[in-house]
Amino acid sequence: MASYDKQKISILIHFLGWALFGFVIFVLSPLSAGVERPIEYWVKQAINFSMLLSIFYLNYFYFIPKVLFKNKIPLFLLINLIAGLVYVVALIAYDDYTNLQELMHKAFRPDIAYVPRPRNYYWDISQLLIFLMAVGISTSIASVQKWQADEKLRLEQNQQQINSELNYLKAQINPHFFFNTLNNIYSLTNIDVEKAKTALLKLSRMMRYVLYETEKTHTLLTKELDFIRDFIELMKLRISSKVKLEIQIPEKIEEAVIAPMLLLPFIENCFKHGISSQQESAIFIALEYTEKELILTTKNKIFKSNENSPESKASGIGLQNTKRRLDLLYDQRYDLQTESNTEENNYQVILKINLR
């Protein structure tokens, strides 16, 4: 329906444009002289206008798409040059056939005898310039419309590619997350059955989030933070007393929208690399949301013993995918800073996303 309305508007614009052009150039301008002109003159004006209209749409619908847009530029120029010459010659032939020069002399100077004079080609050149203007306008309009159509197609293809890539990246992240979480619960069943049950309840709530929310491009920030809280609580069931956790996630926060499971890989990474069964460790996770800017800060130690584990390698894939998602969804609207202190084996991430 919208396409049909646009087509009607386009036709109306063409009609009004040509009506205004024809009236001003071929009717109003001659009438402004205040001289009654012969019928042959008005027939010439009608022929002139019809020829301009014909070359305009012949170029617009045929020569421009079939010749110019096929990179046959010399042929296109030659066609219009020949058409311009035919246009001028036809007007000259009409003047000679109707003896229009004498008729116009009698209309403007009825008291002076007509004396044949050499033709004034100034008017023929001006007619040729009007012809070239019609060709130029038709070429410009067709070129702009083609550029707009090509740009629309390019944007649609880019969006389709982005959507396909985002779906692929989310499909990679989700199995990776469940693989690690189920491993944690499996370990708990051998230690504390009640904790394992609690973990399963939290996991079921998280699964509902993953199943329903990740189907969307965006989700509510409060839902994303609830998901992260559940994940951290699940991790607490696994870690020992040697791990010091400092979590700063506000209970109440201004509502906004964010890509689902975008923050999880950074938080998951803290538990992958920042926990040791032999040494004491500390994990710091803070979230802040002010003036539509979300800031995630994580700090953790890096233990060499964790770097070659299958989970760590999977974590690396998850982080790479998340960075790619940030590029696709928040291009020029996010800032990701990572800092690694090799002397103290500390690792820090500061992610800032503009959620406007």
TrEMBL record:
Keywords, alphabetical: Kinase, Membrane, Transferase, Transmembrane, Transmembrane helix
One of the record's GO molecular function terms: kinase activity
Name of the protein described by the UniProt record: Histidine kinase
Positions of transmembrane segments: 12-33, 45-63, 75-94, 125-144
InterPro entries per the UniProt record, alphabetical: Bact_2-comp_sensor_kinase, HATPase_C_sf, Sig_transdc_His_kin_internal
Record carries keyword Plastid: no
Any single Pfam family the record assigns to this protein: His_kinase
PANTHER family linked to this entry: SENSOR HISTIDINE KINASE YPDA (PTHR34220:SF7)
Entry keyword Ion transport: no
Annotated ranges, domain Signal transduction histidine kinase internal region: 165-242
